[in-house]
Write a structure and sequence with these properties.
Hemerythrin-like, 88% helix, mainly alpha
């Protein structure tokens, strides 16, 4: 299975996470507009990436003749539900610049939790899920 699109998506999402970190370090209050825009852009990338996984990748892996690949796919798909919901709440709360300016430390805490979980998930997919899919 060709995994190029998924790897490009991951690279773009990781770049967005890095952008959010850089903007936050430079000052949440001063960069609230840019942070807000980066959050929305990241959410858009993730939305399309998840749709591709849900509509193409997971169904293909679920029908694999290799039971371990189907099991990995089911586990990853199930795990993504919680992270997707947490990220959705993060976007809903922090996409408004005024909220970022009102509570920069709350944003920093939430970003550290949600973006770290997202980063770790992408790394795990690159190490485990995508190599299994590429072998099909």
């Amino acid at each position: 299975m060709n995994m190029d699109r998924y790897h490009r998506d991951h690279a773009s999402i990781l770049q967005q996470i890095d952008t959010l970190r850089s903007l936050s370090r430079a000052g949440i209050d001063a960069n609230a507009e840019h942070i807000s825009q980066a959050i929305v852009e990241t959410a858009s990338l993730i939305k399309f990436h998840l749709a591709a996984e849900d509509q193409v990748l997971y169904p293909r892996l679920a029908t694999s003749a290799m039971p371990e690949v189907a099991a990995i796919s089911a586990r990853y798909q199930s795990e993504m539900q919680g992270l997707s919901q947490a990220f959705g709440r993060f976007v809903e709360r922090w996409r408004v610049p005024a909220r970022l300016q009102e509570d920069p430390e709350g944003f920093r805490r939430d970003a550290n939790t949600v973006l770290r979980a997202l980063f770790e998930r992408l790394c795990r997919e690159d190490r485990e899920l995508y190599p299994a899919a590429a072998g099909l």
